[in-house]
Design goal:
This protein has a domain at 201-299: Tetratricopeptide repeat domain (Serine Threonine Protein Phosphatase 5, Tetratricopeptide repeat, Alpha Horseshoe). The protein has 16 helices and no strands. By secondary structure, the chain is mainly α. Helix 5 packs antiparallel against helix 6 (126-143), helix 5 (107-121) packs parallel to helix 7 and helix 7 (146-162) runs parallel beside helix 9 (186-202). Mean pLDDT is 82; it is low at 15-20. The protein is rod-shaped and about 205 Å long.
């Protein structure tokens, strides 16, 4: 029994340790997901914070070998690097994320990464951008992920806009806007509003464009979406330059620059330099316009785009070469972890089996002992009942005999008194006759007759007394 108790305590302790370990892992998993979600929300307003939170999440996910968490952390790091104007680093992060999502067989995670890579290519390789976006859209439709479908419509519209296929872009923006309204996603409704404004501006429908862009500006400020404010202000500046409302154009250029500096977007700051050049040129302030133009052409934007595209392609080739090695290492790690888990569970199961066997044996022995004790108790009860009956019977016999003896004793006492009284008379007569005979005062024959009569009377009395002693029913004397 002591051994069984020790085993039970050991199992309980083991399970408690395992439960605590599982609880710690669950808590760490929740922390990873929360950090990634928080980082993603900050992507437009503070890309540096996005990178910081996702990097912290990645460290925790690696520590607990949380594959989906590692993948999502890499994806959010890629998003942060993209918004921070680091496309080369962003593609590396996205490809790492894609590898881990493939290992975890996470389809929706892969679709999100394809969407991110498509966005990364939209400024320098439209065909490749659409290839990735459509690949993502195919998965999203199969999984019926409406949020991702709406985002992909928006991003595909962005590619068509950059191709200057404005009507196709307008078609996708409207589809995206309708879906976001159904989903109640206000933030992305604002993005759609801005993009529709941009399209109408390019279609020279300035009134529609101005109304949508001003509303997008207000809503972006409401939700503190700094990058979107900067982007919207850029289009508003161009719109007011086209309408020759230079004071309004300058107002939105200054506001947009401040927000672009807040989000540290080199891309937007470069676009604002070009818009400033256009504003000064339209104002016929050629000296200042020339200053902006010289600054712009310090960077050969076309070569920069080609360099980025080539760099991305090279990184992809390099990544594919390393991808298999990483996947193999992860597979080995996963198999080792699975084996350890399997053997741990097997040991626990074996110990539980031993405990169950011991407990079953104890229960069986206890059941047999209880059964035997029940039988013995029954036998003792029966014997006790028999003894009680015998004792009761003996008590009845003793009572009866006692009563009988009491009656006999009483009768003996009565008989003794009776006998002494009944016999004393004939004996006294007999003694008197003997004395008379000695004195010669009576005739011998008459004396003998009277003596015979006395003896007969004594005999009769004795016989009568004997009959009464042997007949308890008789009460007469």
């Amino acid at each position: 029994m002591k051994k069984s108790l020790v085993f039970i305590l050991f199992i309980v302790f083991s399970l408690a340790v395992y439960a605590n370990s599982s609880a710690d892992v669950a808590a760490d998993t929740t922390q990873v997901n929360q950090l990634n979600n928080d980082g993603y929300k900050l992507r437009r307003s503070d890309a540096e914070q996005t990178l910081a939170k996702a990097t912290k999440a990645l460290a925790i996910a690696r520590k607990i070998n949380y594959i989906n968490g590692i993948a999502e952390s890499y994806r959010i790091i890629g998003v942060g690097r993209d918004y921070n104007g680091e496309p080369e680093k962003a593609i590396e992060s996205y490809l790492n994320a894609l590898s881990y999502f493939q290992i975890a067989n996470n389809q929706i995670g892969q679709a999100r990464v394809y969407n991110n890579i498509g966005n990364l290519y939209r400024d320098n390789d439209y065909d490749k951008s659409l290839e990735y976006l459509r690949k993502s859209l195919h998965i999203a439709k199969n999984l019926s992920d409406q949020n991702l479908i709406a985002s992909l419509y928006l991003n595909i519209g962005n590619v068509y806009y950059r191709q200057k296929n404005f009507y196709e872009a307008l078609n996708y923006y409207n589809k995206s806007n309708d879906l976001f309204k159904q989903l109640g996603n206000t933030e992305y409704e604002v993005t759609c509003m801005q993009n529709l404004g941009v399209i109408y501006f390019n279609l020279s429908q300035y009134d529609k464009a101005e109304k949508l862009l001003l509303e997008a500006n207000v809503q972006s400020k409401k939700f503190n979406i700094y990058q979107q404010i900067a982007s919207t202000d850029l289009t508003l500046s161009s719109l007011y330059i086209s309408k020759k409302n230079f004071s309004e154009a300058e107002k939105y250029v200054e506001e947009g620059k401040s927000y672009a500096e807040m989000v540290k977007s080199d891309r937007l700051l470069s676009d604002y330099k070009y818009t400033s050049y256009q504003l000064e040129y339209k104002r016929k302030n050629f000296e200042k316009a020339l200053y902006y133009l010289q600054d712009i052409y310090k960077k050969d934007s076309l070569n920069f785009q080609n360099y980025v595209s080539a760099r991305i392609a090279l990184l992809q080739v390099k990544h594919r070469q390393d991808e298999q090695q990483k996947e193999n290492a992860l597979t080995i790690l996963k198999q080792k972890s699975d084996r350890n888990f399997f053997w741990g569970i097997t040991v626990v199961a074996f110990l539980l089996l031993i405990v169950i066997i011991l407990l079953s044996g104890n229960i069986k022995r206890k059941a047999e002992t209880n059964k035997r004790l029940t039988e013995l108790n029954g036998e003792i009860s029966r014997q006790k009942d028999n003894l009680d009956r015998i004792n009761h019977h003996l008590e009845e016999i003793i009572d009866e005999r006692t009563k009988d003896l009491q009656i006999k004793n009483r009768k003996l006492s009565e008989y003794s008194s009776y006998l002494s009284h009944q016999i004393r008379g004939p004996i006294a007569t007999l003694k008197g006759l003997i004395n008379l005979e000695k004195e010669g005062l009576v005739n011998k024959e008459e004396c003998f007759n009277m003596m015979d009569k006395c003896v007969s009377e004594i005999d009769s009395k004795i016989m009568d007394m004997s009959d009464m002693l042997h007949d308890p029913e008789r009460t007469d004397m």
